[in-house]
Amino acid sequence: MDISKNMEIDMTDQSRFGRIPDAKRRSGLCRAKLYQIAAQHRGLFLKAGGATIVDLQKLDEILATCPPAKISTRKEVAAA
């Protein structure tokens, strides 16, 4: 039995809703950053009783609008 296969994250998961830990795993963001994003995007978080539910598709759409990271080499940073 290959244990490593069970530990892989399924990036093909197309679930519409999930909990905060699901959103953290899917996005790679911390809980605090998710709450910051939710404060700017109404409807990202929903309440179902005591549970906070995340609209994962909406989160994907929000993250897709983020600009690409600008990565510099050490030489470029030192020259600046």
Structure, described:
There is one protein chain. The chain is an alpha+beta fold. The chain has one domain. It has helices at residues 3-7, 20-27, 31-40, 56-64, 74-79; strands at 17-18, 45-48, 51-55. The longest helix has 10 residues, at 31-40. It starts with a helix and ends with a helix. Mean pLDDT is 85; it is low at 1-9.
In terms of topology, how is this protein built?
Elements: H1 3-7, E1 17-18, H2 20-27, H3 31-40, E2 45-48, E3 51-55, H4 56-64, H5 74-79
Antiparallel strand pairs: 1-3, 2-3
Helix pairs in contact: 2-4
Feature tags:
80 residues; three-stranded antiparallel sheet; disordered N terminus
Quick structural gist:
With 80 residues, the protein is an alpha+beta fold. It contains 5 helices and 3 strands. Helix 2 runs parallel beside helix 4 (56-64).
Pattern of helices and strands? HEHHEEHH
Query: Strand pairing plus helix content: what structural class?
Result: alpha+beta
What is the total domain count? 1
**Rg from Cα:** 17 Å
Helical run tally: 5
State the helicity in percent bands.
Answer: 40-55%
Share in β-strands: 5-15%
The main sheet orders its strands as 1-3-2
Arithmetic mean pLDDT: 85
Number of strands: 3
Low-confidence stretches: 1-9
Q: Terminal Cα separation, in Å?
A: 52 Å
**What kind of sheet is the major sheet?**
3 strands, antiparallel
Shape: elongated
